[in-house]
Structure formats: C-alpha cells, structure tokens
Amino acid sequence: MADKVLFITGASTGIGAQTARQAAQAGWRVALFARSEDKLNDLAREIGEAAIAVPGDVTDLSSLGDAVRETLDKFGTINAVFANAGTGLDTPGIENGDPDEWSKLVDINIKGVLLTLKATYAALKKSKGHLVLTGSVAGRVHISGSVYGASKWFVHGFAGNMSTEMREWGGRCTVVAPGMVDTPFFNEAKPDKLKPEDIANAVVYAIDQPAHANVQEIVVMPTG
C-alpha cells in the first residue's frame, strides 16, 4: 500500500481523524482536509510522514482544488477519497426549523459531497480509484420530518449512481452508513454508542479490498 493515497474531508476530528490514523497504520498516505488548520496540523504531526494537512472549506470548489493540487504535488496520486465532512441541525424538523440552518446543511452535506468529487474526479479516474461517502442509517429509514435524514438519503442515492458511473472506468464507490456514533457531532457524549474507530474500520476495510471487489454499502449499528 506504499503508493496508495487517501484524501479525507472532515479530517480534523471524529470519524475523519480516526480514519486517517487507521489508514496510515494500514499503509496508506493521507491528505487531511478540513477548516480547522491547527487540528489538522496536530494530526499530521501525530501520524508523521505519511500525512499532509491541506486545510480548506468543503463548500468552496477553489479551496478543494488547491488542496487536491497540493496533495498531488506531495504524493503524486490520489487513489481514494473519503467524502466525510458533514453537519447536523440544532433545530430539527420543519415547523420550528431554521431555513438558514437548512442552507448550511445542504451546502455541507450535499454540495460539499458534489464539490469534493468534482475536485478529485480527474485524479480518481486516472488512478481507477475509490470514492467512499459517509452516509447514515438516517439515510436508509424514514424519520419524522428529518431534514438531516433527507440529506443522507441524497448521499445514499448518489453513491449508487457513482458506483454505476465509476464502474465504467474501473473505479469503485462505497457508502458507509453508521448508526449513532460518539463523536463531537453531538453536544453530549454517547458512551454506549459506536466509536469513531468502528467506522474507520469499515472505511479501511472497503478501500483495502482487491481491485476486482467493490463493497458498495456497509451499515454499522451499535448493539443493544
């Protein structure tokens, strides 16, 4: 895996950061993308020479483009992309929901995925690479009035569409759908739920499969 490079959005904390650690342990080099430059730099130092911090905003195509170019300059290739950046809502539902929050959620959870792929598409196509998306169990079941869940339904649908498209040129696409994970995504700790390590395991499993095998969806639920 010495020549394999993974580009991760939302890499500064939680699932993204833990995936970077575990991918590096599995022999991948990792490019860490998020808005928090200090956290990315700390994580890159922790991982060592296999990591590069490329801070930026997932809602800004030019920012993503700069990060991709820096990754290619440093590592020469991008073999996998983990489009992991996401956000939730402080006020769920429609009746009391905040349209400004909806706009932010759409910008990150939907447009951010599209822009990430737009910025990395040429590199992925060149390497016949692997796209991994962070979906959610909330994108596989109907939850009363859930705007967040609807954004993850988009992710799951888009993953299926990209699996079909990428197959045409030898690429692969996987959506990883966690149940509740104990991460900074939530305001309160969830000690009885999944850990970031559980989802990182799923991502690394998918991207480490042999080229002839495509794991299209992984659902990870807490027991109990």
Q: What is CATH's topology name?
A: Rossmann fold
- How large, in whole angstroms, is the Cα Rg? 16 Å
Number of strands: 7
**Low-confidence sequence ranges:** none
Structure commentary:
Helix content is 45%, strand content 15%. A 7-stranded parallel β-sheet has the order 3-2-1-4-5-6-7, with helices on both faces. The longest helix is centred in the middle third of the chain and has 29 residues, at 99-127. The chain is of the alpha/beta class. It is globular.
Report a brief summary of the structure:
The chain contains six helices and seven strands; from the N terminus they run βαβαβαβαβαβαβ. It is of the alpha/beta class and 224 residues long. A seven-stranded parallel beta sheet has the order 3-2-1-4-5-6-7, sandwiched between helices.
Topology of this structure?
Blueprint: E1 5-9, H1 14-25, E2 29-33, H2 37-47, E3 51-53, H3 61-75, E4 80-83, H4 99-127, E5 130-134, H5 147-167, E6 172-178, H6 196-207, E7 217-220
Parallel strand pairs: 1-2, 1-4, 2-3, 4-5, 5-6, 6-7
Helix pairs in contact: 1-6, 3-4, 4-5
